[in-house]
Specification:
Length: 599
């Protein structure tokens, strides 16, 4: 049985632990949670439930479950739900409710609609009513109810087309799901059980929410709390091709969108084609500060070797998070209902840049990073102009420049524009460095930034043969600066940019404290401690990661073991001037996370 030290000590005396009516979990920094889908709940016998429970308790330690009442063609009757709930509560497990908003055609509803995954048609009166009944029934049994992430609609039936009227689908579905959330879900549930906390879980596909009626910017004022999908699986081979870093950054995004109201992160076993890939999802979810680690789902976990590995790692993750503070990173503005250069900020996260995504433009941040997604905010250039004028450092991508170029130029923030042709880059030049060249590299296609020489200054050039163009361009405006980063035409090529050139991107984003290397993430916290994690993928071997800082440090300390890595002085030329700072190199091992602090 896995227990936090505190619990082991105290449970020796008391057998089990309750503090003021609150049962302490197995871990100090998060709860271990398992989801029980309706089909599984319906099939439980008392014996099966007990033996499954023993397995989960043995390996991951069970703090809480979400017990589902409805999914697809399955409804679980009250007696069965109370049997499961009663058993788990007798074991000290917290039990909340769950609903998956999928349903087969039924008598009274309009049939034959093209509903993806059998999601509801929310204009059909019979379906709306059925959804309302499910919410009422579930709220009558539980004080907390979560909606699994099928709470979207892509229905394009004739009734939906009629009700859409002259609006586009995005506008119509925003209106529709606001109405459904209020009048078919939260209000009826609270009428039955005024104490009930209604939770909406959002899927891992943030960039597409608004197309399907997921509107967190609206729903945050309707639901009590949210929950985040962090199931990234094996990116190369899955339909969703999500960078692993999403398991961290999407939780941060939702936490910033619903401050203090993000319940947890949710991952699963599907298409995780290595054990490490499965547990990495939990590492990143926990590193983001998620309060619950939701393991989907109960029956997939039983007798699954993934669960044994997870059990071994949970207490180590818990130790990592102990006293580490609040996650911090480069403020990356991703407005609600936006898309464009999707997942790009996560790719920087996979290159060791700590990223803090937020749906709020943080005017207090020292640096703000903007990808094409930020252009969904119609006032973005006005906000940018005011921010840079006052001394802010804004970093935009070529995708942003492409979208907002006319406005940026009209505002006088830059004269730069994109050529209509891309260019091949095999040579890199760090312009402020007298010997900053990397040559004969595999070709990467970049958009070509055209600028006024000596009006803006290129910090990094990329070229081939006798031509080159800026890859990192600096403009000044008021007290601040606007940087433009050239993003390879194929975003995956970011990982193939040579280290010394990528370091220029990193210095622009992070300042003088950054980490060189790839295939790893750096998770930074306001305590000053940080975690390095090297992913188990592609170049599957140890690699050096070098931490640079302008702070006069003696060493980098492995917080757990106390091992010290001696810092050395470094210098380089920046803007043709000598810069002096400190660096420490450590060996980063695939699948291993280490917490460090400076000394
Ligand atoms: Zn419809």
């Amino acid at each position: 049985m896995i227990r936090c030290t505190h619990r082991i000590e105290v449970s020796l005396f008391y057998g089990y632990l309750y503090f003021g009516g609150y049962k302490m979990g197995h871990f100090k920094n998060f709860k271990t949670v398992v989801y029980i889908p309706a089909q599984v709940a319906k099939g439980f016998t008392a014996d099966k439930l007990a033996s499954d429970y023993d397995f989960l308790e043995k390996y991951i330690g069970l703090d809480k479950v979400y017990l589902e009442t409805h999914r697809g063609d399955t409804d679980v009757d009250k007696e069965q739900l109370l049997m499961v709930k009663g058993f788990l509560e007798s074991k000290g497990v917290e039990v909340s409710g769950g609903i998956t908003t999928t349903i087969n055609d039924f008598k009274g509803a309009e049939g034959g609609k093209q509903r993806l995954f059998e999601t509801f048609c929310y204009t059909d009166p019979a379906m709306r009513n059925r959804f309302k009944e499910i919410c009422e029934f579930t709220a009558s049994l539980f004080d907390e109810v979560i909606l699994d992430d099928f709470y979207f609609t892509n229905c394009t039936c004739e009734r939906c087309i009629r009700e859409k009227g002259n609006d586009d689908w995005v506008t119509f579905r925003r209106r529709l799901m606001k109405d459904v959330s209020e009048n078919c879900c939260v209000k009826p549930a609270k009428a039955v059980n005024p104490k009930v906390k209604m939770v909406i879980k959002y899927p891992n596909w943030r960039e597409s929410y608004h197309f399907t009626g997921y509107v967190p910017g609206v729903q945050k004022d309707i639901f009590d709390a949210t929950y985040t999908g962090t199931e990234t699986r094996s990116p190369q081979y899955t339909d969703q091709h999500l960078p692993e870093y999403l398991s961290y950054s999407l939780v941060r995004h939702m936490e910033n969108a619903w401050p203090g109201r993000n319940g947890g992160g949710w991952f699963d076993t599907y298409q995780c084609w290595s054990m490490d890939r499965y547990i990495e999802q939990a590492y990143l979810t926990a590193f983001s500060g998620a309060k619950e680690l939701m393991h989907f789902q109960w029956s997939d976990l039983i007798e699954n070797p993934f669960v044994a590995a997870m059990g071994l790692q949970l207490s180590k993750i818990d130790n990592m998070m102990e006293g580490i503070g609040k996650p911090v990173g480069v403020s990356t503005y991703i407005p609600f209902d936006s898309c464009g250069e999707n997942h790009l900020e996560m790719r920087f996260g996979m290159l060791g840049v700590p990223v803090e995504t937020t749906p709020v433009f943080d005017t207090k941040a020292s640096t703000v990073f903007l990808t094409e997604s930020a252009c969904a905010d119609s006032d973005i250039v006005k906000k940018l102009e005011a921010y840079v004028l006052e001394g802010g450092k804004a970093v935009i991508t070529t995708g942003f420049l492409n979208k907002a170029g006319d406005e940026l130029r009209a505002a006088g923030l830059t004269e730069a524009y994109l050529a209509e042709y891309p260019a091949k880059v095999t040579r890199y030049q760090v312009t402020g460095d007298f010997a900053g060249y990397e040559e004969h590299k595999s070709p990467i296609l970049f958009p070509v930034i055209c600028h006024g020489n000596n009006n803006a200054w290129s910090l990094l050039n990329g070229g081939d043969g006798d031509v080159h163009a800026p890859l990192v361009l600096r403009n000044s405006y008021g007290k601040g600066r606007l940087y433009i980063l050239a993003i390879p035409t194929a975003h995956g090529e970011l990982y193939n940019i040579p280290e010394s050139a990528m370091d220029v991107y990193k210095r622009v984003l992070c300042g003088q404290e950054y980490a060189s290397g790839k295939n790893f993430s750096m998770f930074t916290y306001d305590s000053g401690e940080f975690i390095l994690y090297r992913y188990v993928k592609s170049d599957l071997h140890t690699e050096r990661v070098t931490i640079h800082t302008s702070k006069p440090i003696e060493a980098l300390v492995d917080v757990e073991t106390g091992t010290e890595f001696k810092a050395e002085k470094e210098f380089r030329f920046e803007d043709f001037k000598r810069y002096e700072g400190y660096k420490v190199t450590v060996i980063s091992t695939p699948g291993r996370f280490v917490k460090y602090r400076f000394k």
